[in-house]
Backbone:
């Protein structure tokens, strides 16, 4: 360290800092420039500034031998934090005599001496300025203490003007942001990481600081939607901070739910438009035929046309019911579950199925079947969807078996077919809304992909569960389990 402070260099450098402020620069670039000016003038090995917030401090700017400390947190209960926030405003400390990991790291690097001054506004501490000296340096004197106290007061004045400060991740403004916020330097390394950033990414500040961002940064002023390896989506924006520091502010938020809703909306429009178009086209064609050729048609032709129109109208009605139920997340509502005769309910629901399906049913329902606990009216929807599904994926005229049995505390019923079956990897995906298997299946077996989704919703709201499995010898078994009444 020089015998005395280089006041000429300090004043010249401070003039540059003031000119930066007058030119519109603020915040970290100005603060860092001030530390760069002070370090050689004071003969220090490094300078650092710790900003304090409600939950502790963090090194937000550092130069020289302490540059590696940028981003280092100082929790409120850390012995160093307690020491800095108490006692005289200006202190000379030895790192090797302080408790805690941080002083130990300084001492291990041969940086055992430091002069510290708090930056205060109206008695409130906003931070602390540190001049750190090597072991072989001359002992700092009162002049050094006075200059460091003066520089800390200058920094406090910057905080009073609120020109880009505070930047502390736990500061009142940054901490209150709902969006993740990071400040990165010219090398792309994180210098600031607010609490929302930790929540959005799952990376604590200690994991993120001084490391590259875990996602790409869009060009300044642009927006980027990026998918993380875990499948979540982030919407990322960035902007450059004015000044020579080449800092960039990056904000980001989790838009996974929005992406899912957008995808489901697009899929909903595509699927429903396709499914609505077919019956509407058939109805319109037969209606036009009846209108334009009524006199030339036989009675049998007219009855057939009316029959087809009725069938297709029923298909439309069922599709609309599914869509409305899906949009409303349909279920039994607030009606409390009650015991009901499962066998009787299944027979009644089977009797209401379309004639073509009824003719294919084979019922195996014991007369002594225990009651089930749930909502009887919703069972008709469950059986209709399962039976319709079985009929769609099996040959016309083939048997669809409906059976029931007690099983411990549960009572179960099954809808079984001898159709094309279901792949083991599809037994869970089949219950997803709008899912219909491969495109080939979708072309061969039309449907909105809502039936099984509604079945699972209804059954699980009654504290039961539903499953699919391949049937031995070919076909599919759908099983619904409800609590015994």
Residues:
């Amino acid at each position: 360290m020089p015998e005395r402070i280089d006041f000429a260099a300090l004043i010249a450098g401070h003039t540059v800092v003031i000119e930066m402020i007058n030119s519109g620069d603020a915040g970290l670039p100005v603060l860092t420039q001030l530390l760069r000016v002070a370090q050689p003038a004071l003969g220090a090995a490094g300078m650092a500034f710790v900003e304090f917030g409600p939950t502790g401090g963090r090194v937000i700017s550092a130069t020289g031998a302490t540059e590696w400390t940028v981003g280092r947190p100082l929790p409120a209960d850390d012995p160093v934090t307690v020491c800095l926030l108490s006692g005289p405003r200006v202190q000379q400390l030895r790192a090797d005599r302080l408790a805690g990991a941080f002083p130990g790291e300084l001492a291990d690097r041969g940086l055992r001496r430091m002069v510290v001054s708090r930056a205060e506004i109206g008695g409130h501490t906003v931070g602390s300025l540190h001049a750190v000296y090597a072991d072989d340096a001359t002992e700092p004197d009162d002049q050094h203490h006075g200059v460091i106290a003066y520089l800390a007061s200058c920094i406090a004045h910057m905080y009073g003007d609120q020109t880009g400060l505070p930047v502390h991740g736990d500061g009142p403004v940054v901490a209150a942001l709902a969006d993740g916020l990071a400040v990165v330097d010219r090398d792309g390394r994180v210098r600031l990481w607010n609490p929302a950033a930790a929540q959005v990414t799952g990376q604590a500040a200690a994991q993120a600081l001084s490391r590259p961002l875990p996602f790409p940064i869009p060009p300044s002023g642009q927006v980027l939607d990026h998918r993380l390896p875990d499948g979540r989506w982030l919407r990322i924006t960035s902007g450059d901070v004015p000044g020579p520091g080449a800092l960039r502010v990056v904000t980001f938020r989790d838009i996974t739910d929005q992406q899912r809703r957008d995808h489901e909306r697009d899929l909903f429009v595509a699927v429903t438009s396709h499914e609505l178009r077919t019956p509407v086209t058939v109805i319109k064609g037969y209606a036009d035929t009846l209108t334009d050729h009524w006199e030339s048609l036989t009675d049998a032709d007219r009855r057939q046309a009316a029959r087809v129109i009725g069938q297709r109208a029923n298909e439309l009605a069922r599709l609309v019911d599914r869509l409305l139920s899906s949009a409303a997340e349909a279920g039994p509502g607030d009606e409390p579950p009650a015991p009901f005769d499962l066998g009787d309910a299944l027979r009644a629901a089977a009797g209401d199925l379309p004639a073509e399906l009824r003719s294919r049913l084979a019922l195996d329902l014991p007369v002594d079947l225990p009651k089930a606990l749930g909502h009887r009216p919703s069972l008709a929807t469950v059986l209709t969807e399962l039976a319709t599904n079985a009929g769609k994926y099996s040959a016309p005229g083939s048997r669809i078996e409906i059976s029931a049995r007690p099983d411990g505390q549960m009572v179960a019923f099954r809808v079984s077919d001898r159709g094309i079956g279901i792949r083991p990897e599809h037994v869970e995906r089949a219950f997803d809304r709008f899912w219909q298997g491969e495109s080939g299946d979708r072309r061969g077996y039309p449907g909105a992909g809502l039936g099984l989704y509604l079945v699972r919703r209804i059954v699980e709201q009654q504290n039961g569960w539903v499953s699919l499995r391949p049937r031995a010898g070919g076909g599919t078994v759908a099983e619904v389990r409800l609590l015994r009444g």
User: Anything to note?
Assistant: Residues 28 and 390 are 67 Å apart (CA to CA).
